[in-house]
Amino acid sequence: MAPTESNVLTKFLLSPSPLPTIISLQKFTECFPKSQRTNSQIKILYRELQHIRSLDDDQVKHNIVQEVKKGERQRREVVRARNRAVWGDVDGVDGREMETEATTSGAGSNHPTSKPHTLSTILPAMEEARADIQAEIDALEVEARAILDDIRTTVGDLSDLRYGRFDQQVGSWGDLRGDVLEGLEGLEEVCRILNGQ
Question: Is the pTM of this model over 0.85?
Fold first, then answer.
């Protein structure tokens, strides 16, 4: 069986990771000058280093889990991109619909077919699909908030212009005209994006 990303990262980043595995208390004590080796603070320092090392290990384990999730998302994105490239969108017909039609009619046999789901495989697949959709929703919400902030800024700037509350130097009307036109063009662009044009 091929090693998974999680196995590779864990073996590379965490083994051997506990401090006693790397250096024992006795070896650690021997690193100090002979006159200080009996100092009780050495043992406390060793325990503190052991604790810090443990916290670092926990953080690395957490980062490995996050990296594996990121890799899975990237893999799903690649699969989606390949499906879009192969099936594309034709006159509003979703690529999945075309794939289903090709599978049921016997066409498209040169593409690998997936195994049908069983009860034990459908739940993880559905959870993965739910996670994908939630990630897309989150990304769209972030994008929508950014667009809304841009619109609010532009509308606020236009309101300031309407009521004469703009920050321009005296005699810079040429710059003001350009700024106003640029702001209006930005507003038009955002409106076009929102209207899907």
Answer: no
